[in-house]
Design goal:
Outer membrane protein assembly factor BamE; 5 strands; Beta-lactamase Inhibitory Protein, Chain:B, domain 1; signal; alpha+beta
């Protein structure tokens, strides 16, 4: 292909691309509703259940508290006598859940606990499966009216038949070679 022909083809492709993009300008809103990014659920921190909080008793050591609740999310250098347990769950289409629990220590033993009312494990699991909105599934089949806009395809010229598939293998070689 000569250089002028390539330039002409390039100009034609640019004009065609501009026409296609101009035609899509009115459907931009519809396209943005159909094509949406995947939104992931974000879980941060330690989930603390009501059952775990009920197991805590004043006078427990730090290691005992850690075995029941897990490692605290925040341990402040300035407040070494308290541990912060914060749990956040953000899911698309559902209001974010945030729960906080603070464990206070006095002379390296647990003194008391303050924080939000914690759900039981079964209540928390039930909250995960409910309230999630189902996304609208787009129609995947064309209607007769939509298909009528396109010309019917010409019937293909019959050609040679494809070769028959090879019969399936009846036995397979051993996975390992025999040991000697």
């Amino acid at each position: 292909m000569s250089a002028p022909a390539r330039r002409g083809a390039r100009r034609g492709a640019i004009v065609l691309l501009a026409a296609v993009l101009a035609g899509c300008a009115g459907t931009g809103e519809r396209l943005s509703n159909v094509v949406t990014p995947y939104k992931v659920a974000v879980v941060q921190g330690n989930f603390v259940s009501r059952e775990q909080v009920q197991m805590l008793q004043p006078g427990m050591g730090r290691q005992q508290v850690r075995e029941i609740l897990g490692t605290p999310l925040m341990v402040s250098v300035f407040h070494g006598d308290r541990w912060e347990y914060v749990f956040t769950l953000k899911r698309p289409g559902v209001e974010a859940q945030t729960r906080k629990l603070t464990v206070f220590f006095k002379d390296n033993v647990m003194d008391h606990v303050e924080g939000d009312e914690m759900p039981s494990e079964s209540e928390f699991v039930a909250s995960l499966t409910s309230k999630v909105s189902k996304p609208k599934v787009p129609q995947l089949e064309a209607t007769e009216a939509q298909l009528a806009r396109f010309p019917k395809a010409e019937s293909a010229v019959p050609g040679p038949s494809p070769a028959p598939a090879a019969p399936p293998v009846a036995s397979y070689p051993p996975l390992e070679s025999p040991r000697r």
